[in-house]
Specification:
about 15% helix, alpha+beta, single chain, nine-stranded mixed sheet
């Protein structure tokens, strides 16, 4: 797996939804000792703690309170992972797509209604190149 400055190095990253990402980030850093590594506008932030990470994102408009989390998993070959999931009948919400922040991803819903985004780093991109703000990259 290649390194990408726009993504934490952790393999499995919980994604938590908040009404106010900035306030949530400040609270998690102050109270639990997380460190903010990247801020994307006012709608997304990446926090790290040791070798772990969590992504905070703003609740989508119209999403109910049940839309409070997903799981982000970094894989070595997202195309073959996608094909395996598709062949096994996974409920695919977002098909494979490459993004300007250097990741190729797809999203599925598991039988319990949980969303999983599988992602592969395809290039090392400085966050400032796509609109992110590096706060404290490790």
């Amino acid at each position: 797996m290649i390194a990408n400055r726009s993504v934490p190095v952790a393999t499995v990253i919980p994604v938590l939804v908040y009404e106010d990402v900035g306030r949530a980030s400040d609270w998690l850093c102050e109270v639990f000792g997380f460190r903010e590594r990247l801020r994307i506008g006012s709608h997304r932030a990446q926090l790290v703690f040791g070798d772990g990470a969590v992504i905070l994102t703003q609740r989508p408009i119209g999403a109910g309170l049940h839309a409070c989390h997903e799981v982000h998993v970094r894989v070595a070959n997202v195309d073959s992972h996608y094909e395996r999931a598709r062949q096994h009948g996974a409920h695919i919400l977002h098909t494979l797509e490459s993004y300007p922040f250097g990741e190729r991803q797809y999203t599925v819903e598991d039988p319990g209604g949980h969303q999983w985004t599988f992602s592969q780093s395809i290039s090392d991109v400085a966050p400032e190149e796509w609109g992110g703000t590096a706060v404290n990259l490790e």
